[in-house]
Design goal:
182 residues
């Protein structure tokens, strides 16, 4: 059974807007990726698996519009939000929708131990979903992901306001950014 037609139409419009914003952000000079933000917010730690392991683990495909016609669905989701003139964008590994509303964001990691960088990445993606869909989804790390299943699931707690303040602080630290000129 699908969602009611009004929420389905609203979902289609929000997904369409998210995809259009992502495209605009990816082409916009001075935009910042979630990866860049997460690296500045929490030092990345190598997990020794190399790029091949990461690419294999992230070989996930989906149709973002499919979430609008299903009771429950997961999909990778391109996201972007413009914060005081600067686009922040990236593709969340998986976003779970229930009745056309995003309720969870999951970052897939092939390694089995969480780190600050991965947790921050999950928080920033959850923040982006909250901005694009006016909600507060739960954020998770799925650790030990092998492309089919994961070994453990860790909830990452966050507050929307706290993440936004941290993002603003990072944007102010980027040399030559709009934030420093203004």
């Amino acid at each position: 059974m699908g969602a009611d037609p009004r929420s389905q139409a609203d979902c289609i419009e929000r997904v369409r807007r998210a995809l259009a914003q992502f495209e605009e952000a990816s082409l916009s000079p001075g935009s910042v990726t979630v990866t860049e933000l997460a690296r500045k917010l929490a030092s990345p730690k190598s997990h020794g698996g190399g790029a091949h392991a990461g690419l294999k683990a992230h070989n996930i495909w989906g149709d973002p519009y499919a979430v609008c016609g299903s009771r429950e669905a997961w999909t990778p989701l391109p996201l972007a939000y413009k914060l005081e003139g600067t686009w922040i964008y990236g593709v969340a590994d998986l976003v779970r929708f229930v009745d056309c509303k995003p309720v969870e964001v999951a970052e897939l990691k092939y390694f089995t131990e969480p780190d600050r960088y991965s947790e921050m990445q999950a928080k920033v993606y959850a923040w982006l979903v909250s901005k694009c869909f006016e909600c507060k989804p739960r954020a998770y790390l799925l650790l030990g992901w092998d492309g089919v299943r994961y070994k453990s699931k860790l909830e990452v707690k966050y507050e929307i306001r706290d993440i936004e303040e941290k993002v603003c602080k990072v944007l102010r630290s980027i040399p030559g950014s709009k934030w420093q000129r203004g």
